[in-house]
Amino acid sequence: MKSHITYLSFDELADRLCGIFQRHGCPSNVARLLAENCAAAERDGAHSHGVFRMRDYVSNLKADGWVDPAATPVIEDASPGFVRVDARNGFAVPALAGARDLGIRKARHNGAAVIAIRNSHHLGALSLDVEPFAEEGMIALSFINSSPAVVPYGGHTAVFGTNPFAFAAPRAGEPPLVFDMATSVMAHGDVQIAAREGRALEPGIGVDAEGRPTTDPAKVLDGGALLPFGAHKGAAISLMVEILCAALVGGNFSAEVDPSRHPGAVTANTGQSLLLIDPRKGRGALPDFAGRVSDIVGYVRDAGQQRLPGDRRLRHRAQSMKRGIPLGAEVLDFLDSLEAA
Amino acid sequence: MKSHITYLSFDELADRLCGIFQRHGCPSNVARLLAENCAAAERDGAHSHGVFRMRDYVSNLKADGWVDPAATPVIEDASPGFVRVDARNGFAVPALAGARDLGIRKARHNGAAVIAIRNSHHLGALSLDVEPFAEEGMIALSFINSSPAVVPYGGHTAVFGTNPFAFAAPRAGEPPLVFDMATSVMAHGDVQIAAREGRALEPGIGVDAEGRPTTDPAKVLDGGALLPFGAHKGAAISLMVEILCAALVGGNFSAEVDPSRHPGAVTANTGQSLLLIDPRKGRGALPDFAGRVSDIVGYVRDAGQQRLPGDRRLRHRAQSMKRGIPLGAEVLDFLDSLEAA
Fold first, then answer.
1. Coiled-coil ranges per the record (chains A, B) (predicted)?
2. 20 to 30 A Cα–Cα from A286, which one of A37, A193, B152, B257?
């Protein structure tokens, strides 16, 4: 039984992933951003968006003509509080990285700003996209749509992506409060992990290709679909995500993405939107915003919620930074295979 | 058995409610706004925020010193995309009405704007607050916190309000797409209706004063609490609502409101935030935003979701505008009693 664990530093892991991205066609700047994004998810224990996702990245990069890893995003200063980004069929992470500073400047000046990214491919953890804004003192919300994977409430056919949204806010004396969630009842990455590990899903998570309830993750992945979380409420939120990521940005709805002529394609050329708010514009004469975020977190802990959003991620991160990011032998073998592929 | 239904026009009902508000201390402009808000909820079949709520309004107005119906909101142009409103312990509806045009002008110019209202009392249907922005071509999101009524995920004590949020977007050829939802698994008003009608709740909705699960709406209302919708996800959204409605605006968290020395008090002097986005800044060269909203609504209907968010409300509204707003004899008796009280 192989259970030997190797601990890599963040830089060691990111360098290794960067080499794989470059080997599969990414220019060095894009490779570096994607590698750091993926390594950060692994560092934070967000395994469904960590090294596990490298298989999808490589498959996606090999799906000829699907994503352009060398695309140069076009960033357009549309109005005092609105940044438009055309990712030009490239990855979302470099598109957002290119727009981040302009978005922050606009939010600082105006109090509120939007970054609207279209024609972009997203495979990362959404929490990592909003966190840097909170580190700059901003409230950030972000939304992504993707490929059809979720049936509407009471519907029979997948229309929505898993359409996550994320929220981040600065917090006094601690790292920012950050959470993200799929608006499906389970993240697609977690269904893939269950399938890989041969675990059944709980009832109420997915349907098969005929729209019948199933607990088999393979049936969900093979033409089936997930249900929205929270019944009609989650479905309404998922609809809102589609509007904010397609209608608003000028891009594709999840249901308009057709990767069928690109075998191996995993991502969707859809969109991402971010809403930024500068809390310093709102606090008036009352105590500092970040201190107030700490107050509500304290109330919630006192009321008995033991694990707050983001707590697990921060604990994993602290451990990873102290002793290294743990990787099993089979994961290292897997990275070897991607380096050789 | 009394089952005679009287049909009132919107104006007839609003006039009648306006008289009750004035009788109980509201100046005529505030009485008119609250009456139209309440009549609109009844017109739209949103009964938990319709005439049923008049009992709460009157009780609240009689709770000496709790809400100031004559307060003049202070509207502050804080930055190019940020409006601060101090409702001065008055109702939220007139505070928002006073800030609406400035918010729309800011969003039109910047692409994005925030309206941050503090020290306000809200008893209306949140959908009615966002709808007028969509009628002006804006995307609007709004959030409200209130009094502690919802336990955090896995917690034992109420910390969150039912903390609803609402979304509205213009839609081609049809009224705006509008929805609101409590982030509790059920709206507080619906628990009150169940209690009044003597109906048991479904399991998984509430806990009693000792934090034990109960299906008795009276026990939920009497020191108990509701659960968040969608388990930890709904709880995270409710936490976000607290941050956007208290930390951001400079007001009270739900858990900081203490009406105990004001018998009859129903509302909370908390806050409300609105995020406005001008979709015309985002559409680029692609088709019109409102048409794209129609597209996604079409996809969702084609996939088998028979009732979209807001459909029921629009159907009720159309019927009410055609034949009048139906009110049972007992409701009219109830209004008589409020007029005499």
1. none
2. B152
